[in-house]
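From the thread on structure requests for the teaching lab: each student submitted one protein with a one-line request. Submission from student K.M.:

"Model Phosphate transporter from Smittium mucronatum, tokens only."
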Amino acid sequence: MMNPHQYTYIYVLALIFSFADAYGIGANDVANSFATSVSSGTLTLGQATCIAIVTEFCGAFFLGSSTADTIRSGIVNVNRYASRPELLMLGMTTSVFASAVWVIFATSRGWPVSTTHSITGAVIGMGIASFGGGSVKWGYDGVAKIITSWFVSPLAAALLSSIIYLITRYLVFERGNDSFKRGLYAIPFYILITVWVCIAYIISKGLPGTKQSKLSFGHIVGIGCAAGAGAALIAYFTYVQWLKRKLGDGEDLKWYHIPFVMFLSKRPIIPELTPEEIEAAAEKEKEESEALIVDVKQMSLFEKCRYYILRGVKQDVRNIGNPKLQEIHARAKKFDNKTETLFEFIQVLTACATSFAHGSNDVANAVGPLAAVSTIWSTGKVPGSKSPVSAWNLAFCAAGIDLGLATYGYHIMRTLGNNITYTTPSRGFAAELGTALTIMTASQIGLPVSSTHCITGAIVGVGLCNGDIKAINWAMFVKVFFSWIMTLPVAGLISGLMFAIIANAPQK
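Reply posted by the TA:
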């Protein structure tokens, strides 16, 4: 039996590289969850970052252990390492290193790659380098299952998002003067669906340190539906009434009036902006955007520190004034602004659901290999297919995801922004809800889908609902698709070469 503490240095390296991989996941993948909310103007980049830090951490910490098993032991046949567990420690360490290197490099270039692709390719590469192709589970119980998800997830997300958007479009937006009134009725319904799915998903998954819920499917659905109905009822008597009075009647209401709006007397009417005031507001927004371009050399030490700390959330990522995208944006049909505004809150809610689902699914890309190394270091044995994942492993990698988003996530958010198609709150909410449903379903069955694939497919699906194929920036889509193809072999090559060199190096 091996002396596991002889390889403590490998464990330490695995901790460092797993955190780096989690950092890359936050910088690259988390932008997917809130890209449509920022690009539509519903949230600022800073607001999206603050919300995502909470939702990503909660999803990763509370529900991230299921897919970690698939990443850790669902790709390579770990039984081959039973006589030499230290090789699996080394292999998982080189895998998470290769994944981190590729994802962070791709992020620096503005390429929205799949972190699931990256770790999968890295594990395959080290498996081939250690015992040849036979050590990899190529069948549907391993690689084939994951590869299938790469094609199914964008199509499923596109289909779900298109259905949601088309229903909203024809039942709400295409109703002329009644669109605002219909939108007020639609908001509680969508809140019901979002809360229903999230609550049912959380109950079925269970919390760390507890067993998966033993409730029947019917009970889980019933509890989720009851919670969703309660949230929808509260929303109808608070948020919906606030929207009706503020947007419909033009009353001067603040956000903190929402909980007790039913008890407020009629407020003063806000006069509509004149064309000159609208133009002045646009000019002010332009000046604020230009103010983001600063000369660091002219700053004091304190200003430099503040600039670099907040730099990741002070970027302009919307691409609204990009002349290269004007023709694409012009092909998207525009609807009543007031009705679109109704969907801002529900878009934030669905973005939170997507981010929560992303954290629960994609934290496995960093924590899966780390959990394998941690188990071997603790026991000296190769872990079983369903060995537990430590809560501190999940928290450690979840913190890395949050840090990556806050400091480097603007690169990918700028790429996804409005670059693929024109985004509004209603379009963004449909894409995010479809993505959340796809990711949550996949995470529930332990299938590590790519959030990049899901949100990209969802955005394209919603964009095609304009009825004009030229409403999609196909050049950007091809670029994204090419990055998907490149990720698997590049990460596999880096991991496999590193493992082969280290494992076969002369020993004292």
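TA comment: DSSP finds 19 helices and no strands in the chain. Residues 130 and 500 are 7 Å apart (CA to CA).
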